[in-house]
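User: quick one, sequence for these tokens?
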């Protein structure tokens, strides 16, 4: 259904109202929730797949700071290439197939560099990867638009780096020298030289691709061991995990060698493992098995024995896992895509499963669940202190709710990992384009970044 400009402005107003309701406590002050006020560069980056934007949230106020534009709707002043034509807003799906649209399609994955200075994000449909400066919140390589005017974007979007079919998740090596991106539409990983990639997107040279690494069919994500010596590759097409020796040379560049292939048939008979992450102590790697409604933990070194296999409930459909560890306990959170009735205020909501990681391997289980205050939860990430949790959602909020028609991010105080406290539901609002407002929609990945500090991938 086509929306008019009036419809979009109405949604924008609802978003503004929603941001005031449930605003929750801010992080202003000397030290609240473990985040000092003088670390004012902290930001949360959220990938919005349907709008091809990244929402940037200020965690001190829990409001939208800005929206990063990865579209090219307004780069050309001539209709029908501009987003609004004759006062009518075509569907997003229609616009990305216009002849002169060269922007991102289906922005999905995101990862911070080890020093949190860069964000890499992938366009699943446009088969490329973009690099974003985490401090300035700008797309590296975008240039001034010579056609710019009142109704035309001031910048032309970088083309990023074309890498292959269906790039799903990017991951920086622990030393920050390389970016490994899984090509889910193929059976290989592309390995980029980060220094050369920065020059390539800036138009100074090419040759950022160091090599393509053949691996499992449908690779979904790479994650590196804490010491950076091993790479784990999961798949959404086969029930296996490839484990590689990174085998870095004296300059820090990889020379991958297959160590072993793990068989996940018992844990994931449906062959759909989309996400993984190592524990903060580096001893375990956890996998989410979306269609099997479970997660599992394996040794991150040695023989890579399976340690735990935890069932999450019928149709739970886990997306991401996150580790919440502080003085009050050690927990594993799993975001559930399932939407349940009976959420806060009687509004349908997804939930997050809490697993006690301090329990002995083999006896771990879900100890409780909590509602996310949003629908179809996906990305999870904590602040460096492990006291705040941010949650991304794919579906918009229901009619009759304060954030009606908006995709939302929710925030929790997880100072006690087993008793999370709701802080705020943040409507993501719009990207303001010269020709109108583009609603931020369908959030997937989410990362919390403190520029200059070691990231979870560092």
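Assistant:
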């Amino acid at each position: 259904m086509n929306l008019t400009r009036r419809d979009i402005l109405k949604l924008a107003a609802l978003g503004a109202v929603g941001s005031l309701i449930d605003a929750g406590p801010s992080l202003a002050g000397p030290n609240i929730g473990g985040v000092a006020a003088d670390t004012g560069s902290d930001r949360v980056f959220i990938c919005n797949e349907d709008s091809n934007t990244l929402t940037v949230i200020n965690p001190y106020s829990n409001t939208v700071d800005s929206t990063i534009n990865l579209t090219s709707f307004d780069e050309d002043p001539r209709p029908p290439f501009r987003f609004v034509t004759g006062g009518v807003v075509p569907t997003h799906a229609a616009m990305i197939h216009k002849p002169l649209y060269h922007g991102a399609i289906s922005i999905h994955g995101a990862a911070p560099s080890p020093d949190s200075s860069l964000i890499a994000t992938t366009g699943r449909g446009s088969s490329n990867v973009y690099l974003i400066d985490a401090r300035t919140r700008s797309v590296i390589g975008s240039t001034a638009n010579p056609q710019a005017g009142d109704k035309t974007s001031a910048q032309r979007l970088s083309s990023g780096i074309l890498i292959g079919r269906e790039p799903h998740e990017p991951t920086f090596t622990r030393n920050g020298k390389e970016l490994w991106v899984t090509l889910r539409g193929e059976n290989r990983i592309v390995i980029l030289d980060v220094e050369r990639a920065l020059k390539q997107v800036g138009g100074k040279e090419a040759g950022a691709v160091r090599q393509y690494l053949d691996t499992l069919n449908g690779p979904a994500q790479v994650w590196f061991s804490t010491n950076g010596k091993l790479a784990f590759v999961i798949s959404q097409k086969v029930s296996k995990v490839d484990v590689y020796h990174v085998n870095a040379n004296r300059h820090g560049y990889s020379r991958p060698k297959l160590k072993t292939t793990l068989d996940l048939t018992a844990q994931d008979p449906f062959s759909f493992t989309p996400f993984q992450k190592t524990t903060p102590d580096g001893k375990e790697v956890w996998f989410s098995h979306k269609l099997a409604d479970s997660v599992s933990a394996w040794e991150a070194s040695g023989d890579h024995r399976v340690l735990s296999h935890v069932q999450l409930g019928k149709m739970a459909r886990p997306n991401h896992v996150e580790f919440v560890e502080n003085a009050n306990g050690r927990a594993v959170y799993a975001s559930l895509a399932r939407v349940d009735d009976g959420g806060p205020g009687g509004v349908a909501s997804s939930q997050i499963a809490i697993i006690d990681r301090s329990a002995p391997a083999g006896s771990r289980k879900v100890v409780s669940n909590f509602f996310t205050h949003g629908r179809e939860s996906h990305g999870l990430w904590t602040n460096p202190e492990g006291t705040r949790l941010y949650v991304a959602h794919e579906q918009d909020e229901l009619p009759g709710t304060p954030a009606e028609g908006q995709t939302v991010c929710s925030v929790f105080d997880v100072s006690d990992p087993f008793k999370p406290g709701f802080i705020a539901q943040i409507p993501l609002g719009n990207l303001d384009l010269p020709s109108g407002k583009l609603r931020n929609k369908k959030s997937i990945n989410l990362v919390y970044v403190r520029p200059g500090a070691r990231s979870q991938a560092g």
